[in-house]
Amino acid sequence: MSDIKTKVQGLNPNIRARNVKDLAANTGNIYEALAIITRRAKMLSIDLKHELHQKLDEFAVSSDTIEEIHENKEQIEISKFYERLPNPAIIATNEFLDGEIHHRYKQKRGRNDY
Fold first, then answer.
1. Domain residues for 69?
2. Which residue blocks in 1-114 are alpha helix, DSSP H?
């Protein structure tokens, strides 16, 4: 993960309208563009989730009773940081529009290949 957290710090986490022609400019097809963005968003989501779980596992304490659960301020701050990050779909859309996502086809499909 190429330090995605620092890259998206200034990114607006709110959803906003996009020009469909801008999205389809690279691929020529809006559905292909959305498929690429979706695939990248899934990758980001998995990476962020894995990283969050690794950081939270450092605070894991094995205890036998539920009453012994206590809050750790560092753990809460880490969770809040990840909650404030923009949605992976927003990050992937910005990467796609900025030309940071490279895609290719395994093989060229013909008109009758379905």
1. 15-97
2. 4-7, 20-24, 30-57, 73-84, 88-97
Whether 75 and 57 have beta carbons less than 8 Å apart is answered as no
Structure tokens at 31: 């559905």
User: Would you report the helix, strand and coil content of the chain in percent, each value rounded to 5?
Assistant: 55, 0, 45
Q: Write out the two tokens for 64.
A: 């036998």
C-alpha torsion sign, points 33, 36, 40, 43 = positive
* Residue ranges of the chain with per-residue pLDDT less than 70: 1-3, 5-7, 9-10, 61-71, 108-114
- pTM of the model as a whole: 0.73
- Residue 75, domain member (yes or no): yes
pLDDT of 1:
47
CA pair distance 45, 77, nearest whole angstrom: 19
